[in-house]
Amino acid sequence: MTGYIDDSQTAPKTLTLPSNAITNGAGKNSALNTRVPPNFKCYNGGTGAVIGDATITFSTSTNHNIYNLEGSIDTFGSILFTLQF
């Protein structure tokens, strides 16, 4: 999955996936043992540089389909991010 945010002024960003995305590869995400956490990478849209401290966090007890994109993603410009499930 690739996402583009044209003006990133706040962090974290919240990404909510369908809670039953088995057919699209994101996992069932209905409990911790069925979660498929993604690999996350974020790029500065102005320079193309990797935002090295960009991280993804999630709850281990509830809302298994919600991810928080954190780190220095508040570039006051565009960002491009990828999630690999």
Summarize the structure.
With 85 residues, the protein is an all-beta fold. It has strands at 2-8, 13-16, 39-44, 55-57, 66-70, 77-84.
Question: Please, could you describe this protein's structure?
Answer:
With 85 residues, this protein is mainly β. It contains no helices and 6 strands. The protein has one domain (2-84). Strand 4 (55-57) and strand 5 (66-70) form a beta hairpin. The relative contact order is 0.37. The model has no long low-confidence stretch (mean pLDDT 88).
Binned, the helix content reads under 10%
Strand order of the largest sheet: 1-6-3
What count of structural domains?
Answer: 1
Helix-strand string: EEEEEE
Average of pLDDT: 88
Tally of separate helices? 0
Content of β-strand: 35-45%
Note poorly predicted spans: none
> C-alpha Rg, in Å?
13 Å
Distance between the termini: 8 Å
Number of strands: 6
Task: Give the structural class.
Answer: mainly beta
Major sheet size, sense and barrel closure: 3 strands, antiparallel
What is the overall silhouette? elongated
Topology:
Blueprint: E1 2-8, E2 13-16, E3 39-44, E4 55-57, E5 66-70, E6 77-84
Antiparallel strand pairs: 1-6, 2-5, 3-6, 4-5
Provide key terms for this protein.
85 residues; mainly beta; 3-stranded antiparallel sheet; 6 strands; 0% helix; 39% strand; elongated
